[in-house]
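This part of the workshop introduces the protein records we will be handling. Getting from the letters to the C-alpha cells is the skill we practise here. The record below serves as our worked example for the rest of this section.

…
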Amino acid sequence: MSGVWVFNNGVIRLVENPNQSGGVATHQTHGRRNVLVYLPTGEVVSSYSSLEQILRSLGWERYFNGDSDLIQYHKRSTIDLISLPRDFSKFNSVYMYDIVIKNPNSFHVRDFN
C-alpha cells in the first residue's frame, strides 16, 4: 500500500498515486507540489540519471549490496546512505528531504507551481 495519508475534517484516508503526472517528480502535500532543486545551477531534478550525475560530482557512489527495489548511494567519507525507490514516479518529498539533509548546501526542496 502506497500513497499519501490525508487528514480532513477529522477523517484520515489514504490517497493512492497522488502524482500521476510524468516528467519532473513532484510530491503533493496539502495541495502543494514539491520538487528537488540543485542549488548551484538551479536545475530541477527530473530524472535519476541527472540526479546520479550530480551525486557523483558530490562524491557519492552507487551502492549495489542492498535491496533490489532500491537505488542506493554511499559516500566513503561518511556513514550516510541514500536509498531511493527504483521507480522515479515514486520519488517523493521524503526522499527529497533525505538528499537535502545529507547535502545541505547543494539541494533544496521547493514548491512547484
User: Anything to note?
Assistant: Helices lie at 48-57, 93-102. The radius of gyration is 15 Å. The chain has a mean pLDDT of 82. Residues 25 and 82 are 17 Å apart (CA to CA).
